[in-house]
Design a protein that fits this description.
Distance between the termini: 17 Å
Radius of gyration: 23 Å
Order of helices and strands: HHHHHHHHHHHHHHHHHH
Largest sheet: none
Low-confidence stretches: 392-410
Number of domains: 1
Number of helices: 18
Number of strands: 0
Strand content: under 5%
Shape: globular
Amino acid sequence: MDHHGKNQALEGLRGIAALVVVLSHCAWAFFPYLQSGVMADKVAGWEPWLQESPLRVLYNGTFSVAIFFAMSGYVLTRKYFAHPHAARLDEAAVKRLPRLGIPVFASVMLGYAVMRLGLVPDVVPNARNFLGDWYHINPRIYLALKDALFGSLLYGHQGYNYILWTINIEFIGSISLFAFMALFGSSRCAGIYALLCAGALVWRGEPPYLLSALFLGGAYLHAWPKPPSSPVVRYLLLAFALVLGGFHALSTSYQPLQALAAWLAEQRIRAEPSFLFPSLGALLLTWLVLHSKTISAALSSKPLAWLGSISFSLYLTHSFVLSSIGLASFGLLLTPVGYQTAALLASLLTVVASLGLSTHFRNLVDLPAIRLARRFAKWSLSRDTSASPQPARDAAITPGSQSVALAKEA
């Protein structure tokens, strides 16, 4: 833990996951076979080897998204599980709107500016045309403002930032988690209720429901037992988590899991395999990171901690870099060095430029949003407190008043 109470290992894991999302989109843009598994998309002879191996976990953005949600479930309920009677779920819930909404607003308006200034070149790297489908629109300020203010956060609108399909899951999922803990968290059967709710979401099958279940799964990592103490067993579990994270429905190396997915479908469990298995891997990986000193120490290094600190900014802004600097550099390099070298150099430049932009975005937008969210929550709750009847000064101290006192100290 650092002096802000953050788990540095989880921060490092978050940073790696955000970087994997960037690599995922670079793969979609320049080497689409790595993602689709469709032979018509293949542009390089080495692609089948990588796509057919569990190493695709290195660029599987779905696994990263699942990690984000599992970690959110754990982190958002950490204070509650540590001090159930003193935790302020209402304060945590009030923070979510400005904490997420301000960076989302800024990212959408940045996307509008990129398109309005004509910074997205008309370059199509391959027949799949992944980047050709995004940001080649006539930007309209009123539509951008609508998405920035509520469309992306509430409905997942992604016309001005295509990664925002996840942000409404994050917002609604976190608020729903706080509501669940307020209603059922103190019940002896809370774990069973959480399991039933998560199971219903998984059975529903569509990715948004399945990913939402990760909030409950991540929250109740607090109640999971520690993994076996044997280092060999822990590393085997780590390997299994990463294998699950790299799942692809068309990869021959995943035939056993594909068979399991077919059996689940026969049982009318409609969970999408491409999200189900990475989600299970994300929960397993997060659990291991929380309890393994060796893994935790590796993820707590200063470079990874820094990467974790800019992870949200990196997630929100990298698509603009890829669609502008990435595409432009690819177009300039294509004739002199050939497709593969141009694609690799463009991807490298995208990563470096995205890290630079994310650093500034964090300082100018993300950190002020965190501070404003805290002030907004204190202001909002202080108004509720001042409006409510005050107990007599000489009233006896009750368990309820003790809880309020603990909450203020927290």
